Amino acid sequence: MKSSREFIDHIQNEYDKLYKSNSAPEWLTNVRANGIAKLKEIGFPSNRNEEWRFFNLSSIYGNKFAIPGTTSNVSAMNSQIDNYKLNNTDADMLVFINGRMSEDLSDFKTGGKELKMGSLSSLSAKEGPLPFDNTLIKHAELEKNAFTALNSALLTDGAYIRIPDNTTLTKPIHILYLTTGTDKVTVSPHNLVTIGENCHATILESYVGDCADYFSNSVTEIMVDKNSIVNHYKLQKESDSAHHVGTVYAYQHQGSQFTSCTIACGSRVNRNNVHVFLGDENTECTLNGLYLGKGNQQIDNRTRIDHAKPNCRSWEVFKGILDDKSSGVFNGKIYVHQDAQKTDAKQTNRVLLLSDDAKINTKPELEIFADDVKCTHGATIGQLDDEAMFYLRSRGIDYKSAYAMLTKAFAADVIDGITIESLKEEVYKLL
Length: 431
Hints:
The protein is of the alpha/beta class. It folds into 2 domains: about 5-280, no CATH class; about 390-430, no CATH class. It has helices spanning about 5-20, 25-40, 60, 80, 120-125, 145-155, 385-395, 400-415, 420-430, and strands at about 90-95, 100, 115-120, 160-165, 175-180, 185, 190-195, 200-210, 215-225, 230-235, 245-250, 255-265, 270-280, 285-295, 300-305, 315-320, 325-335, 345-355, 360-370, 375-380. The chain has a 10-stranded mixed sheet with strand order 2-1-5-8-10-12-14-16-18-20, covered by helices on one side. Strands 3, 4, 6, 7, 9, 11, 13, 15, 17 and 19 form a 10-stranded mixed sheet that branches. Helix 1 packs antiparallel against helix 2 and helix 2 (about 25-40) runs antiparallel to helix 6 (about 145-155). The mean pLDDT is about 90.
């Protein structure tokens, strides 16, 4: 099975087998039905599509991934989960095993009646119709992204977080997705985060796995209300033979500040989509990313920042370090709408190639329909500086240490912007 048509047929079979006769809340049934309908309507992309030209789609289409069952052996996983926790950091933990939340492995407190945190599916079962009925899938683009439609069609669970107005969280929220046990499975987690006015929150998503071959297809929707400050991190370090497609949609209201940093170093093929919509005046957005490739890995980053209103600012820095025969893609677009006067936007992509066989395809873009703006973009590709290496070696530093120092220095401005110290330390270790 190598074609997208055959892959859709397989997904339809999985959908029919698991969901057609399965009782589920009405909202979830509607989301799934809408997802499978959109998927059949638009179809999966091919490499003739510009957005997917460099991505190894056949690696996904050539597998018959199945939806895994529940995992009951919780006691055996406690030590395994400990390996993925943030060291020396007190955090609320939401743990998902094979796409479904484990209450026994999770550790969080809602901290009040208005602050909601937990499983998307369990909340719907306990509370009936929820406020998120009209926000789930609101900003996710089913008609434009086949993998987002696939996420809706196979949706089982995900994290639900609702932070009320005037709330400052004193510790980060860590959403951990572990895929384990059986090979050839697919998980489709959907995270919904709604943040009220005048809030301050830090959220980390991490994706890990120990299966030989699986497909993780995640979607995260984040709504940031007026004057709130949100730090969002995504750490993707799945197994070397996994497939990962992850999409983040963020919508900002007036005066809000949203900072997102994507760290990608795992999986055989990895696609990260980040779409931020600055929907009101005086909003600020910072998008940072670091991707580390080795072996035959492929890491594809696609970002879009929509400036829809006046007096908004955005900064974007993505850096890649590619070794062996790995390959990377960066396509970042800044889209300035006609009403978005006084826009200030900067975008940079820098790539360090550590091997003659490593390669990068980079395409920074500006699309501007306003006439009073300051927008810049740029891309640089290079290798370690021979003069800098000679300087360090001439002062008694061995080759391996000098190599590591220069590599860490290249990535430092992205990593040092991380506000969770233990996460910062972990990323430095990954280098």
